[in-house]
Amino acid sequence: MALAMLVLLSTVSFTVEKHFCGDVLVDVSMFTEVDKCAMEAQELMLKKSCCKDEIDIVQGQDELKTTSFDDLDFNVHKFLAVFAHTYMYGFEHLPKETIPHKDYSPPNLTPDIQVLDQVFLI
To answer: Entry's InterPro entries (predicted)?
Structure first.
């Protein structure tokens, strides 16, 4: 499961958009367009801009290296064969143990009246 997540996360690409008004970060967005500040509308009329947008692109891996069983070394083939054989045939099947007192029910316990009532002879 961990390896599948690692492959998935290494191949995903995404962009992070940031909108700055002066030196102040106004909005950050990963999946949608960033929200512009109120200064952006005024700047269009004045032709002077103090706002800026930054776009960071995180590129994922495009090509994955796949290896087939035939590409492996002879020593790896030997190890895998021995491991599979040991795993399948290496464990002994133990005989079932018989439990002689399996169906025995214990006797009913009677409560100690002296302890329950806290009455002792001194």
So the answer is: DUF8199, HYC_CC_PP
Residue found by looking up tokens 């464990």 in the block: 91
The Cα–Cα gap between 66 and 49 comes to 50
Pick from 56, 46, 48: nearest CA to 19:
56
What is the 8-class DSSP label of residue 50? Answer: -
- Confirm if 53 and 17 have CB atoms less than 8 A apart: yes
The two structure tokens encoding residue 47 = 């032709």
Tell whether the torsion through CA atoms of 10, 14, 20 and 26 is positive or negative.
negative
For the question of whether the overall pTM of this predicted structure is more than 0.85, the answer is no
| Alpha-carbon span 103 to 122, nearest angstrom | 43
Coil, strand or helix at 77 = helix
Q: Quote the tokens at residue 85.
A: 């054989």
Domain boundaries of the chain, sorted by first residue: 11-58
